[in-house]
């Protein structure tokens, strides 16, 4: 069950107590199920009892599991709210509120570089000017005020220049990333890739076939395209591939804090009105942005029918053909 479940519908946490070398211990474990709360509770109890037994047998065992969206290191299934489904593809809301597409076999790869939004740089530069003027007036143009103002201004503009330099470096990295894709394609004429521009680099979708996430072919693809190591490990542990399909809140200037915190699912019923209020405001603003822009398809291979269906939904959700600003 744990190997094939991508996003469980039900979660529970169980606590067991016992004694190890004469000392009282308490073990907490999560359980999950696609069937019912009762099944999730039974699974949690079983995992907790197993962990206690291992501890009593002398193994080093964590007393509790961290509450997070997905455990890149411990292999817990993705713990996010399911907001939509088509066949075996699941759309979830992640820990900061964006929607993500999760698929068991359509290979998505994000190739990132250190890109920064020039808007951030401009805002920081403007803020430094305002702060400098405010200091001058607040301290009545004293020598100390002039010193602080002259210190703030160059700091702000140097910071802004650094951000703009990173943006230029990011743009120059695109040909390099595309060349990596082409080298991978040249190794097999059956291969085909669909490329997108993201705020932080490129996104590739392997179009010619589906893959089990833990297959050697996937590892070879990740290596060839320079995929993020954390994402690689997540794919293998969670038995799925992921792609964010709506904007990151801070990239589109959305300042309302995601509530309640932490953003891990499930949340208490009493907190649902607060969460729904945030989601409504976020989704309204997110409609003005795209998560990625379609660039091109490369390779001479034929596109797999299932991959095409998933990609069509991905493009619709992302606004990949909309021309809206990236975020």
Automatic annotation (TrEMBL):
Keywords: Membrane, Transmembrane, Transmembrane helix. The chain crosses the membrane at residues 119-139, 145-163. This is Uncharacterized protein. It comes from Ahniella affigens.
